[in-house]
Amino acid sequence: MYRVFEALDELVTIVEEARGLPMTASCMVPRGDVLELLDDVRDALPGEVDDAQDVLDHRDQMLGEASDRAGTMVSEAQAEADRLVGGARAEAESTVTGARAEADRTVHDATAHAEGLVARAREEAARIVHSAQEQHDSIMARAHADADRAIAAGRAGYEQSIADGKAEQARLVTQTEVVQAAYTESARILDEAHANADRMRNDCDTYVDSTLGNLEETDFATWRQILSVNLDGTFLGCKHALALLKRRGGAIVNVSSVAGLIGGHNFAAYNASKGGVRLLSKSVALHGARLNPQVRCNSIHPAFLEGPMVDEMLRQTNFPDAARARITRDIPLGRLGTPAEVADMCVYLLSDESRFVTGAEFVIDGGLTAR
What we know:
- By secondary structure, the protein is mainly alpha-helical.
- 70% of the residues lie in helices and 6% in strands.
- It is built from 10 helices and 4 strands; from the N terminus they run αααααβαβαβαααβ.
C-alpha cells in the first residue's frame, strides 16, 4: 500500500511540473517515465488492496467477537438483574405479609383488651348502681318510717287539740307543717348517712281515682291533693336537698311528665302539677348556677311507662285493653316505655357526663310529642 502511495506522489509531482511548463515544453516530459510510473502503480495496487481487505476482515472479526462478548455480558447482566429484582420482590412481599400479620395481631389484641375494659366497666357500673339503689332504698325506708311517725304524731296532736278544745293549737298543727317536718327529718337522716351526698332524683307523683278529669269535673280537694304531692313535694325535696348539695356541688333531677309539656282535656290538675315541676326546675337551675360550688337541676318528662300507675289509669277507662292499644298506636315507637329507660336518663343527668347541662327538660316518650 505504501508503494502505491509513493508512486502516486511521484506521478503527481511529474504532472505538476508538466503543468508549469509551456505547452511545447510539457510535451518534452519523457512519456516513458509516465508510463513506467503507471505500471508501478498497477503492479502494486492489487497486493495492497488485498492487504487492506485483510485488515478490514480482521477488524470485522474483532468487532463481531466484541459484539458477541457484549451481548453475552448484557444477557448475564440482565439475568443477574432479574434475579436481584425477583429476590427483592420476594423479600418485600414477605415483609409486607409479616407486617400485615403483626398489624392484625395488634388490632386483635387491642380489640380484646378494649372489650375486656368495657366489660369490667359495665360490671363495676352495675355494682355501683345496685349498691346506690340499696342505699337509696334503705334511706327512703327510714325516711318513710320517720315521716309516718311524724304524721302520726301530728295527727294525734291535732286530734288531741280538738278533744281539748284548743282550737288555736289545732289550727297550727296543719298538714303542711307535718309534711315539712317529714322532709326536714328525711334530710337530717340523709345527711347523717351520707354527709357528702351530691346527687338527688326527686320523684313526687300520685295518681288517684279522680286524676282523670277536665276542669269542670275536678273538685278542689282532688286539685289540692295532686298539686300537694306532685308540685309541693318536688318543691320541698329541692329545698331541703339543696342545703346538702351546695356544700360540695351536685345535681338534681326532677321527674315531671310529658303532661308537663302538652295539655290534655281531662288532665287539668295533673297538667298543672307537672308543668309547675318543669318551670320550678328551671328556677332551681338558675339559682344553683349562682352558688359556689354550683348545683345543676334538670327535669325529665317520660310518657306512658309500664307499671301500676298506667295500669290504674287504664282501669278507669272501663276498657283497658282498647285504651292500651290506642296509646301504643299513638306512640311512634309502638310501645310503652320502661322504668329502666327513665333510670338510664337519670344516671346520665346525675353524672359528670352532663356537667354542662342544667335548666333543661329531657323527653322520654318514644316520639309522642314530636308530632
